[in-house]
Amino acid sequence: MVSSSTFATDIWVKASWEEFLELADNPEYEKARFYYHQGYMRIEMAALGSRHGRQNSLVANAITIFATLKDIEIVEFTNTSYRKEGLTEFQPDSSFYIGSGLKIPPEIDSPIDLNEYDPPTLVLEVGSTTLSDDLGFKRLLYEQTGVREYWVNNAKVGEVIGFSISEGRSGQIHQSLVLPGLSLSVINEALQRRKTQKDNEINRWLIQTFNQI
């Protein structure tokens, strides 16, 4: 049994699904983020600062603006847990259902059951202290979950790295495949503009740029 008093956080630890659930239901970890894959679990306890929050909001907002202007159906979830019983759990910074015909979960107060609902189309992880893991084991996790696109935001430099996922494998992309026409270079330019501009200015620039596509 894994003890909550001695459990190491912010690293992957070998554990059974039952041990994972025991900790996930522990009030001590109410504000933590939980991941489980292939017999390993990770509990993230690191505080999320303004760098993480600002960049997560900016990238997520750019995605929804693009989808809105291109009349693409989209539903966004923030810090939402997805669970495939006995196998996998993940809680990305932002996740998106994109397109029509998807089985989108209703608003509930428990992890989304991936045996009942579709996985998100696009997942975003913002990495500052967790970047190596976001590009490593988490990427392997998302390759096996049915997610079609995975974006990692390197918050220390303000740059998004994108991966397309198909048949359990991922490859780096520079243009989104689930949002046709959206270049990651535009997202990265928006991230750089945050250093000198407020969100309303960045949003106006994004709208002007997307309308030219």
TrEMBL record:
Which CDD domains does the UniProt entry name for this protein?
DUF820-like (cd06260)
Query: Which Gene3D superfamilies does the record associate with it?
Result: tt1808, chain A
Q: InterPro entries annotated for this entry?
A: Nuclease_put_TT1808, Restrct_endonuc-II-like, Uma2
Domain (Putative restriction endonuclease): give its ranges: 17-168
Q: What is this protein called?
A: Putative restriction endonuclease domain-containing protein
